[in-house]
Amino acid sequence: MSFHARALLLASTAIISLSATGLALSQSPEPRNFVLIIPEALPANGIDQTNAPSLAAMRLEGVTFVNSHSEFPRLAAEFDFTAESDLKARALVAAAAQRYSAAFVQDTRSPDARERSAALQQALAVTLPKFKADKKPFFLAYRIAEPRYVPPSGSEVRPAYKPAPGAADTTLQAIEEELKTLGLFENTNIIVAAEHAYSRILKVSHTSRARVLLPREETLGTLPPGFLAIDVAAALHSDDEVINLFDPDNANAFVDWSSGGHPTQGNAIVVAGYDPLKPLLTIQAHGSYGAIFLADTLPKRQRRYIAHTIIEAMLEQDYLGGVFVNESRVGKFPGALSLTHIIAGRPPERRPDLVIAFASVSTGCPVAVACTSVIADTPLPEGEGIVNAFNRAGTWTFMAARGPDFQAGQKNSSPVSNADIARTLEELMDLDIDPTDRPGARVVRESLVGSRQRAAPRALHVVRPSKASIEGLTTQVWLQTLGSSKYFDTAIPAYVEIPAVVYAPKRKWRWPQWKRITITLSDDDDDAFD
After folding, report:
1. What is the helix (H) or strand (E) element at residue 420, kind and residue range?
2. Residue 316 in 3-state DSSP?
3. What is the C-alpha to C-alpha distance for residues 6 and 365, in angstroms, rounded to an integer?
4. Are residues 325 and 339 in the same domain?
């Protein structure tokens, strides 16, 4: 072969090699898969290698959101604690179905947290293999619901929560193993984001009119369901003797609260008379808080007077955690904050006129805010779990992620909420969802890789106090903010020092010398005055 021929051959080989390299560089990355595991109730505190090794490994190997938040407390008039949180996983699945193989799985965990449920077996044996066969990117939202507490009578009560890290850990481990078997693990982003955290129920008070005095000394001060309604009725009874209490969960039956009776579930109708269909106000017991709705037929002046009476009574209670008022309906009050401070996103159709948040008490763990008990107006027994508390333990959820789009071994200390996780998934999957559906939600770019990554933002810690009451008591809301994003930490009562006021002595009033009054009494007319 001549030198010229060899030169042409080398040149053509170089061109082919360069073209192949260029082709490889121009190829777009393989579309990502997504798995979102949603434990219904799982606090951030207490997860370690002993009780949840897979969850602990995810925190270590991927991103752990150490400043996670569930959501603001719910204030809807009729709110079911089993309703989906700000993750809105079903909406994500519906939007993803246009371009992804998508599925939503609802799984009620078995009492044995380590046992694989039928729903999990179905997801492993059918759903994930089908995703692989579809040869499309996929999105699986897997929600782990807590078993419901139902009393022996069969009447429905609010759910009791006893978080079991093992249930979420078993689910995560099984899904990861199946993804590895199918060859899908390396290209799948996996996020675990709990909907709610957890507080234990405490039912003790030494000021409530409703406290039950039982024979044993250790039970003194135990609160029955409906203690808020009883204290409200007692406060209004001082002005109007015809104040009666009725139980909407017991066919509007009369409640003889002055003799130890109480509403069965905590909900109550307060009537200035005897007709429960004509309420003065209604009370909804939401466990860690009570919502009070004044009758729409009341004039605003009367609504304000009733609200004032209730607030004055609440400020004297040892179970008080904060008072919030609907200022457009009842006005402003010292010691109380506007409802707007605890409403994030779209407000409920009907806001309560007053919200009475109950106090939280630390149970003494090393991270005091992470494990608290909360006074709760509920038929559930003391020691059971409850969500939606106005404390940091109630909003501090387990939240972690790992996969090709997330950084490895990162501790994200910026506040991140459920809504932020959903907004991040929308961004990564390029979903067409109205951003106003999650106002204030942000993409957690500080935890992503590649061109999406940004520097970690710094949050501001904000305290919103009310004006002090005469006794110096304020309601305070503690928040974290990142731009337009707000993250609820806690609502607490606090006393402020009131400076002593020295008044100038007033002259004693005397009847003027030039005035004279004569009173004449007679047998004929006892009321005669001159």
Report:
1. helix 418-429
2. coil
3. 79
4. yes
The pLDDT value recorded for residue 46 is 82
Q: How many domains does the chain have?
A: 2
What's the pLDDT score for residue 366? Answer: 65
Q: Tell me the average pLDDT of the chain.
A: 82
CATH number of the domain residue 176 falls in: 3.40.720.10
Q: How far is CA 105 from the centre of its chain?
A: 23
In a domain, 243, yes or no: yes
Please state the φ and ψ torsions of residue 294, each to the nearest 5 degrees: -80, 150
Assess whether 251 and 205 both reside in one domain: yes
The reported pLDDT for the residue numbered 331 is 95
Question: What 3-state DSSP class applies to 510?
Answer: coil
Minimal CA–CA distance to 236: which of 188, 308, 287? 308
Domain containing 354: what range?
201-375
Tell me if 156 is assigned to some domain: yes
Contact of 447 with 430, CB cutoff 8 Å: no
pLDDT > 90 fraction of the chain, expressed in percent and rounded: 52
Residue 151 has pLDDT above 60, yes or no: no
DSSP 249-289: GGTTEEE-GGGT---SSS-EEEESSS-TTS-SEEEEE-BSE
Angle between helices 53-61 and 165-181 (to 10 degrees): 70
Look at residue 407 in the predicted model and tell me its pLDDT.
96
Compute the half-sphere exposure of residue 314: CA atoms within 13 Å on the CB side of its CA.
32
Residue 397 per-residue DSSP state: B
Token pair for 467: 């004006």
pLDDT of 7 reads 44
Nearest-5° angle of CA 500, CA 304, CA 246?
120
- Counting every residue written for the chain, the total comes to 530
Tokens standing for residue 400: 């972690």
Residues 158 and 276 in one domain: no
CA pair distance 233, 298, nearest whole angstrom: 17
Q: β-strands 68-69, 473-482: how paired?
A: unpaired
Instruction: Check: CB of residue 108 under 8 Å from CB of residue 117.
Output: yes
Q: Strand 199-202 vs strand 385-386: parallel, antiparallel, or unpaired?
A: antiparallel
Does residue 142 contact residue 123 with C-beta atoms inside 8 Å?
A: yes
| pLDDT tens digits for range 314-363 | 999 999 999 999 999 999 999 999 998 887 655 556 789 999 999 988 77
Kindly report the pTM of this predicted structure: 0.81
In a domain, 248, yes or no: yes
